[in-house]
Please model this.
Amino acid sequence: MKKNNERLRGIFARLDRLDYIKPEQIPNIDLYMDQVTTFMDEHLEKSKRYPEDKVLTKTMINNYAKNNLLPPPIKKKYSREHMLLLIFIYYFKNILSFNDIETLFHPITEDHFMDPSKLSLQDIYEEIFSLEKEQMKQLKEDLIRRFRTSQEVFTEQEEDDKEYLQLFAFICALGFDVYMKKQTMELLIDQIREEFPADRKKKK
Model:
């Protein structure tokens, strides 16, 4: 029990260290590939699981462009709009397939990428990430609730075995939550695929 409580405190400490990239941190000049990967690695360093992990690599970014997740660079340079899209892709890449990310982003890249007549990508980014504090608060409350529920099972087991089984129950509860949310995201993306077909012509 004591060790599991320490784990929960450790989780909260890690969550408190995480932060998103503020638009004002993104350079106002277009960047070459090496500058893009260096910027992302520096500003998202705290989200890495292991120090040697790379946030984004040249191969990843080239694959995003090849698979239509990201508009191609202009004269080998990436704009602020490219950077904002790459940040979104970073958060989705371990959850959704390339095909689903392309479907999800298509209306954004089609209607809002470098189009001064529409809501800018920066405005969209700022609006979405303005929800971060409230979402983090709700996440912590949900983690505490699930953790407490996991401590109510396997209570008759010997201490070492009980501690592990309760930890296992906690991780399973989190996994089920992720699984169901992923199913929901995929369902919504399938609806987007039908309602906003990729071959539609851009409105003038």
Residues 41 and 54 are 6 Å apart (CA to CA). DSSP finds eight helices and two strands in the chain. The helical segments are 2-17, 33-43, 58-66, 80-92, 98-111, 121-129, 132-150, 159-195. The longest strand covers residues 31-32.
